[in-house]
Please model this.
Amino acid sequence: MSVITLTTDFGLEDQYVGSLHGVIVSLNPQARISDISHLIPSYDIAQASYVLGGSYFLFPKGSIHVVVVDPGVGSARKPILVQTENYFFIAPDNGVLSLALAREKIVRIIHLTNSDYFRSKLSHTFHGRDIFSPVAAHLSKGVSPDVFGPELTCVTRLDLYAHQVQSKKIRARIMAIDKFGNAVLYFHEDDFKEKMRKNSFVLKVGSHQIKKLNDAYWQVKKGDPILLFGSLGYLELATNQGSLAKKWKLKRGMVVELCL
Amino acid sequence: MSVITLTTDFGLEDQYVGSLHGVIVSLNPQARISDISHLIPSYDIAQASYVLGGSYFLFPKGSIHVVVVDPGVGSARKPILVQTENYFFIAPDNGVLSLALAREKIVRIIHLTNSDYFRSKLSHTFHGRDIFSPVAAHLSKGVSPDVFGPELTCVTRLDLYAHQVQSKKIRARIMAIDKFGNAVLYFHEDDFKEKMRKNSFVLKVGSHQIKKLNDAYWQVKKGDPILLFGSLGYLELATNQGSLAKKWKLKRGMVVELCL
Amino acid sequence: MSVITLTTDFGLEDQYVGSLHGVIVSLNPQARISDISHLIPSYDIAQASYVLGGSYFLFPKGSIHVVVVDPGVGSARKPILVQTENYFFIAPDNGVLSLALAREKIVRIIHLTNSDYFRSKLSHTFHGRDIFSPVAAHLSKGVSPDVFGPELTCVTRLDLYAHQVQSKKIRARIMAIDKFGNAVLYFHEDDFKEKMRKNSFVLKVGSHQIKKLNDAYWQVKKGDPILLFGSLGYLELATNQGSLAKKWKLKRGMVVELCL
Model:
């Protein structure tokens, strides 16, 4: 039984999500569908990349990850299938796979052009229903990737969060504000945890700063700010049971500065 | 494996949706459940009809579509099962099936009265849990439709969007505003596309007008208005990557006028 | 095929829900997952207890109910498995199971300590992904409960809604405001229906009062207040097609007084 995951900006109030499910289950009644999120903000490629990047690797090898955040739907932007050593990704080639592909070894990239595997009547505005879902369903039934179209040599990657290093100051950005109001920062534990444990440091954002690293939310009093490495390994600014984003007016994309 | 779809105004924050799933899976562990939407605005029969109408036909033949938007729950309004050539529909008889049934050929309509197939303790306020879900589950297991109650000769149909024609002016209404802020108009491509391609036309809504027909959002600059036939074949007022509904203060039910 | 239900405060916009699904389906591809709700307000143990309590009993016997509303994640609060005569519950031991366990006969309580059944890399902030989901998946595959850790003798129960009785006045609280704006009161039909049918009574909340008991919303005019026993057997303050909570400014936790 293949798993097909869905990550879109379609919202949950319209017929869009049901349409994807209908198309997939009609073509492959055995497919198992997991909705990762349909509440990506409209057209927000970076957030889709983040949400997919934070969950795709937990699914079984061979899973098919469909991502439809597609501001250029109907234009010349390419619908693609990326096969990696562990997974398949189906999406518009607009950078939405950036974070996931940073951890995956690509086997091949296919430009989805073979309309035999699309819905017979193709719209200009809903390729989630007409291209991405049916291709995912056919793939889940064992159709070989190379049947869907010609190979491409590269895929769009967005470098959304690069560090700016200036002697002992490293600048990065807030990658995400989650549902709880926690701010996820582009400092990964693999690169920074040991240094921050061994040295004194200051993390600055706006007019606020924090100098201590903790492990878990409960270690500070309710409402107090806390800095810790979160569940994806990124540094996180949070409070114990409250929204630091609201309190400190943090937004995605804001610059944070780590002085080590 | 039967597919049962659910379209309701129950929201996602309470125990209501889980209750439907629990009842169905208890009666038929093999049933496959697809949630079309549970975010229909409370009591909004027209919106439920629209969302169901835009997705039901994508599911496999024989699928069972359950719709519970039921402002008259517990009153004399009839719970019904409508069997068409392709699908089954289970809903209160309040017009919620109008758009779907406009495209389907009805085989029979059953008044759901046989309480052997209801939950044993029947509430006055949650027939989604106590009548509609258990009947759907029994039907999915192969119980014959006529067992659920006597046949009816007609089903409630709401004519929500009729055209008003006055020489060369045709008035219709905005059927829906979707998650992206696109306005879907009751002008279908089967009736209007050729005419609009061949002749000059003006589409008016409020103080705004638009005279050009396009195909896809990317064809105009970001934020500019665009008119195109959308993924369900209806005329759509939109912008490239933004909410025209917000910009032009469009609401469902507003009158639009097409001068051909 | 085992059923695993999920009730969390993770929201639907991030990678959290997809993460639980990924972990479970990776460990047990046959598991059937039902999302009860992921829109429990952040850290709101009482609301999670209410939503679970209102739906868990509709699932097949043997179902595994996972509840992750976990303000103390990473602290000394215990992750537990509660086996009852009918179900399994997996949650932090913070009272989130209170309403469900009030109706269930407990067989045993296990402290989840055996890290062989956790994700290999354990975070301090996301035990939903790292402890609760993998334990549920292993349990659904037939692993015996006692393998997960030592037995405990008791589980945290919160007495959230106790009655205060003063001669003929009984005070209780609003347990929940649902999506429709109906207020659910802690007066159960088993204890109060007969009395309220037989005697005159007054129910007071704030400056409002109501003296009549009805059965179904349609029995009053649109917008009028109505009192009835709702689908879970609790007394409910509502209106016909509208939000009484908005109209009367009702909030969860407010005191209501029944004079019999």
About this structure: Residues 3-152 of chain C form a domain with the Rossmann fold fold (CATH 3.40.50.10790).
